[in-house]
Amino acid sequence: MVAVTAPAPSSAAQGASAPLQDPSVVLDTVARGRALLEEGRPDAALDLLEAFVERHPDHTEGLLALAEVYRIRTEEASLLRKRSWAQRHKRTLERAVASDSSHPGARLDLADFLYFAPGIVGGDEDEALRQLEALHAFAPATALRKRASWALGEGRFADVVNLLSEAVSADPGRSHDRVVIGYALGELGQYEAGLASIRVAISMDPDALQPLYQLGRLAAESGLETAEGITALERFLARVPENARPGRAHGLWRLGQLLLAADRPDEAVAALEEAGRLDPELDGVSDDLRRARRAAGAGSAGL
Q1: CA 50 remoteness from chain centre
Q2: Sign of the CA dihedral 75, 78, 82, 84?
Q3: Dist. CA 143–CA 98, nearest whole Å
Q4: Which residues of 233-271 are buried (b: 16+ CB within 10 A; e: fewer)?
Q5: Domain boundaries 1-116, corresponding CATH code
Q6: How far apart, in whole angstroms, are the C-alpha atoms of residue 254 and residue 30?
Q7: Are 211 and 205 in contact (CB under 8 A)?
Q8: C-alpha to C-alpha distance for 270 and 65, rounded to whole angstroms
Q9: Per residue in 93-104, pLDDT tens?
Q10: Angle at 144 (CA atoms; ends 216, 115), nearest 5 degrees
Q11: Residue 299 has pLDDT above 70, yes or no
Q12: Measuring CA to CA, which residue among 110, 171, 182 is closest to residue 141?
């Protein structure tokens, strides 16, 4: 979607009453509603999108944008108002699915609502799975990835591996699937298989940062392939943006662990000190730094 600068509130109100027959105007109105949300102006987005949906009751993208407003309203509402906003959120997602039953985003958003919402506002795990079954008929990999994301959040790592392996069979082109499989295999203690999966992801997209970090992290946690992990993290740190997550602090922490394992304690101390400086709250850094300093001191004493 093309980014559109949101107008002032008075302009937004005018947009809600403008003629919307031209498809470009319709799409622009939805884009302006989403832009207002991104700017933290949910009241203006609500007015604009409710007026739009009243005129275009079967416009799927408009309904999804309005549903996002209702989701934010639910999160921000007082306890007494949460139920009302959540029910509007659900009804709007149901309308979006009814308007286009083959729209993957509509099915996914409704499935997420049903899976996570409490029953009192319409949550229903069985119905969420039925939504994904319907999605599977025309977008199998997308449905499998959503189920895997739920399993990952619940720590069901064997299910993550099975679901994403099936997704890879249906749609082999996404390197991120193999990264998550590698992560889950690592959590199951299957380190060599996890590293192998992440290596495939790196071969598919050598410039992607997440696979490089995850290979280094798994090497550090498993004690396997120390040199390969160091190389991966050095490549990660050479290009990671300041605001990325995982960011430089995590990368330096894992690099320090690997350098210590490679009997390079002075370099480990430097990496771990920088990690602690960047993120003083990062768990584990202080303990690793103490070990690295002891190892560096012992090495110096032996000279």
Answers
A1: 28
A2: negative
A3: 18
A4: bebbbeebeeeeebbbbbbbbbbbbbbbbeebbebbbbb
A5: 1.25.40.10
A6: 43
A7: yes
A8: 48
A9: 999 999 999 999
A10: 105
A11: no
A12: 171
Block residue for tokens 């029953």: 119
Residue 70 token pair = 């209702």
**Contact present, 218 and 182 (Cβ < 8 Å):** yes
Q: What is the pLDDT of residue 246?
A: 76
What's the pTM?
A: 0.83
Please report the pLDDT score of residue 23 as a whole number: 59
Query: Residues 86, 122: contact at Cβ < 8 Å?
Result: yes
**43-100 confidence digits (pLDDT tens):** 999 999 999 999 999 999 999 999 999 999 999 999 889 999 999 999 999 999 999 9
> CB neighbours (10 Å) of residue 227?
11
Of 127 and 29, the one with more pLDDT: 127
- Backbone torsions φ then ψ of 241, nearest 5 degrees: -70, 160
Token reading at 21: 């027959």
- Reading the block at residue 227, the tokens are 């040199």
Exposure b/e, 94-105, CB count within 10 A at least 16 = b: bbbbebbeebee
Q: What is the DSSP letter of 262?
A: T
Give the lowest-confidence range in 6-15, 223-232, 249-258. 6-15
Contact assessment for residue 20 and residue 29, using Cβ atoms and an 8 Å cutoff: yes
Per domain, the residue ranges of the chain are 1-116
Binned at pLDDT 50, 70 and 90, residue 259 comes out as very high
Using the structure block, give the residue that is written with the tokens 């997550």: 245
